[in-house]
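Long-time lurker, finally posting.

We've been working with Deazaflavin-dependent oxidoreductase, nitroreductase family (Amycolatopsis australiensis) and I want a structural starting point before designing mutants. I don't trust myself to interpret raw outputs, so I'm hoping someone here can both generate the structure tokens and explain anything notable. Sequence follows.
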Amino acid sequence: MVLPKGLARFNRVATNRINKHVAPWAPGFGMIVHKGRKSGREYRTPVNVFRTPGGFVVALTYGPDADWVKNVLAADGATVITRRRNYRVHGAEVVHDESRRAMPTPVRQVLGLLNVHDFLLLKRD
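Top reply, 14 upvotes:
Generated this for you. Predicted structure of Deazaflavin-dependent oxidoreductase, nitroreductase family:
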């Protein structure tokens, strides 16, 4: 189960207005800066992002069909802003992982309750 589309719409209108100020510096949060695959417009999407040895992992709480995920995959890259630093990323790959092993333990447990099994892996340039 991924989170419902109605919640995604609410978050886009309400919650993300607050998160966009917190995400670039708060631990466990970040901002994905990506270009629209049709419009070419720049978008900034707040996400929960965690470092991996070669880059980052993002839990796809709205599933792999979210527009921002499609944009990052189509462009084969984006910028991740986390802990007040910008990282250029490439090689985006959606993975299905029932064990959620790339996530920190407390996050893994919460994602288990939400039944989230899809993740976006991003490699740092």
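Before you design anything, note these points.
The domain at 5-124 is CATH 2.30.110.10 (Pnp Oxidase; Chain A).
The chain has a mean pLDDT of 86.
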